[in-house]
Structure formats: C-alpha cells, structure tokens
Write a structure and sequence with these properties.
Two copies of one chain form a homodimer.
Chain A (H helix, E strand, L loop, with lengths): L1 H8 L5 H10 L1 E5 L4 E3 L7 E7 L2 E6 L5 E7 L6 H9 L6 E4 L3 E7 H10 L1 H27 L2 H16 L3 E2 L3 H8 L3 H13 L3 E3 L4 E3 L3
Antiparallel strand pairs in A: 1-7, 2-6, 3-7, 4-5, 4-6, 8-10, 9-10
Helix pairs in contact in A: 7-8
Chain A binds a DNA duplex through α8.
Chain lengths: 210, 210
DNA sequence: AACCCTCAGTAACAAAGGGCACAGACTTAC
DNA sequence: GTAAGTCTGTGCCCTTTGTTACTGAGGGTT
C-alpha cells in the first residue's frame, strides 16, 4: 500500500502523512457496479481512489437519475468530504464504474490532518476545486448543449475512464445516466452510427472516433 | 466594521481572527447591478459579504447565461476561493443583486489563516459545502424540473433575496437568468397571473403568493 | 423444436420550449 | 404634440425531446 500511495500522492503528501494514512486507512477492493455510497446515508470514512473509476450520480424524489461526474485515480469525492465535515447525509450516490481499489480514511483523522499537514490541506482544496469545476461542466452540459452533444461527450468520457473503446452498456443504461429515455438514445446512437463514429452491437458499442 | 463582523461571524471566528480581518481587509460598498467579478479574470482577494446579495452566474462561449445561485449575508464565493487557491482564472461572473457591503481579504492571508485558525478552516469548509449543495440544487432544477417550476422557484428566491415582493426585472432579464427566451417567460408569467399568484406590470412584477 | 426474456429499431404521435412577427401600451426625448 | 425606443402580449410554426406501441433479433432454457 505504501508504495502505491507514494506513487500517486507523493507530490501532495509529506512522508509522515503517508505513514499515518498507511496506519489509519483501510484498503478495500470493490468490483465494478457496486454502490459504495448512497443518498441519505451517513458517512464515517472518506475514500481515496487508488485505482479504477467511480461514477457519481444524483437522483431526484421520483427516482430519476443523472450522472454528475467520474472520479479517477488519486481523486476523492468532495461532496462526501463536505458531508463528513458537516456531519450531514450524503446527497449523492457513488457506484464503481470499473473494479476499484480504495483507501478509506476515518473522518476524525481528516480534521486532525487539516491542522497538521499542509499537503493534506492543499490536496483537500484542490479536490474541492476539481469537483466544483466538474460540476460546473455538468451544469454547462445540461444547460447549454443538446442531447446529441451530451451523448457524444458521455461516450467519449466513458471510453477515457474505462480505457476501453467498447462501451459495455445497454441503451437503457446510457439513458439513465443522461436522464432521458431509451428510445431517444437508440435514435441518436443510430445517427452516430450512420456518421461512422461508432458501430452498434447488442450489449456493447464499438467506438471508432468521436 | 468590527462590530459588523462580530455580529455576523462571531459563531465562527475567534477574536484574534476578527482583529486580523479588520486590519487586513478592505471594506467596499457596491451598488446593485455592478459586476464585481468576471469570467477569465484573475482574483487577488476574496469577498466576505456583510450585507446585500450577490448573484453568481455562468456563461458559455456563445454568451448564453445561467444563474447559478445567490450569495447572502455572511457567505462567500467558494468558486472564487477555489480560483484563489489554485491561482486560476475565474469560471463565473458575480453581480450585485442589491446594494452590498463587502470585505475584501487578500489571498495570501487566506492561506495563512487556514493553518492558524480553526474557525477560519471551518468557515471555509462550510462555505464549500454550501456552495456544492447549492450547485447540486441548480443541477436538479435544470435537469429534473420543467420551466414552469423553475420560474416559480426563481421568483420565490428573488423575493427572498431582495426582501421585496415587487420584482423589478423585465421579462428579458428573467429569461437571461433562466437561459430561455423572453417570449417563453412572458407566456409562463401570464399563466401564473391567471392563477392569481402574481400581478404583472411594466418593469416589475407584484408577487402575491407562489 | 417451442418458449421466454432482454435488447434494439422504428413509426407515429404528443408535449415542451424556442423563434419570428407584429401589435399595442408605456416612456422618454425632442 | 410627435417620434423613437422599450416592454409586453399573442398567434403561428418549427425543432427537440419524450411517449407509446409494436416489431424482430439474439440468446438461453427446457
């Protein structure tokens, strides 16, 4: 664990902090598709993502979903952090997009480290900044772009995150993430196929070039 | 200035911090409608809002706008803070919604205080949390609600923020904030008037009950 | 083979929202 | 007063997106 942390976080964390994380943190390995955090849940420890990807989504009262953003290696969920610090319930759901390796750090340590380690403070701040910016991107995308563009962005991001140009999702799953309907997704995908940007198959999509 | 700070922030800030803010901060009074921060601008000091309200909005490349949220007494703009800390350009525009009194704090002090004062750290964190939650609300609203509802929410919020049930805006201005067109706003407002929720006038709207 | 289930394609229609055009009311400048 | 400019109301039509309903293809089970 230590060398992994060093590899990923060494530009942020000083050695004593790394040692503390090794000592206090608990490593977990989660297969793809698991819900690791849900709406309304209280949070007692904070995840640092060592490998894999996590998708973070929002849900309204009627169960409609919307993908907010992905977390990747070295990142952490600021929304979660905010919940920890504020001791409030989670506002979002987090699901592993790929198999993932995560260090869980107890909340109390977080506060302690904020005072103690400059590196930790910087990391936490940068995380907030990144999350805010991602959220702004999300806002842009739903406010200013039409579905065609949003779908393309979604597919691009998916390929990037999974490092696989075969997207193993059904049209229905994509529709959930974009908060639209299956029929609409099928329609637009067909259009993209005609434009030779991808090839459709049952249960997966082969992305050529977006 | 000191007693104002005490009144608003005393539950967060310890006395020595108040003293430092009084010493380092610069108070400015800004009339309604002024742009106090713009997209692409570098930021050297951070605003703490003593009184009044500030609206924060996003703009895309084509100049389309969207209201993100309002800042009210005692709040600060986390997006700005993130820019400060990351030394990047502003991603948003901030405009005074009413006359406002603001303390501007130099960025360098911020970092110093983060290490030095627990109260400052808590304040900064809570601000982040509040902003993130507001942004999530904004996402919900554009993703899950239709324009009727968004317009009503907008008017409600406006009354709350300006403490005035006469909304002194043209339909065009409302349309900008909601990122839609004037015609659509006029249409929906008329509908609300027919439902006796408000009375329309030239240049202002008298809100009855939403 | 017959059956079942999930997934994808498609047509037809509905609804929400946006764009254009124009009219009328009010405001300000002259 | 007239003229010019701004703001609002409304009718009509178009585009985008959502809904319903049905079809058939693929794959697994018995």
């Amino acid at each position: 664990m230590e060398e992994e942390l060093l590899g990923i976080f060494s530009n942020y964390f000083e050695q004593p902090l790394i040692d503390e994380i090794v000592q206090e943190g608990k490593i977990i390995e989660v297969p793809a598709g698991e819900t690791i955090m849900d709406i309304g849940q209280y949070i007692r420890s904070m995840p640092l993502l060592l490998s894999g990807a996590i998708k973070v989504l929002r849900e309204d009262d009627e169960g409609d979903e919307l993908l907010l953003y992905y977390l990747e290696q070295g990142e952490t969920c600021s929304v979660t952090m905010a919940c920890c610090m504020g001791h409030t319930k989670s506002e979002i759901r987090a699901i592993t997009e790929t198999d993932a390796k995560i260090v869980m750090v107890p909340v109390q340590k977080m506060e302690e480290w904020m005072a103690k380690y400059k590196g930790w403070r910087n990391y936490v701040f940068d995380s907030y900044q990144n999350r805010l910016n991602e959220l702004l991107q999300t806002v842009d995308s739903i406010a200013f772009k039409n579905l065609d563009q949003r779908l393309m962005d979604y597919l691009k991001k998916k390929v990037e995150v999974t490092k696989d140009n075969r997207i193993r999702s059904t049209h229905q799953e994509i529709a959930y993430d974009l908060h639209t309907s299956r029929v609409v997704v099928s329609r637009l995908l067909k259009k993209l196929e005609k434009m030779k940007k991808l090839v459709l198959h049952r249960n997966y999509i082969h992305v050529i070039d977006l």
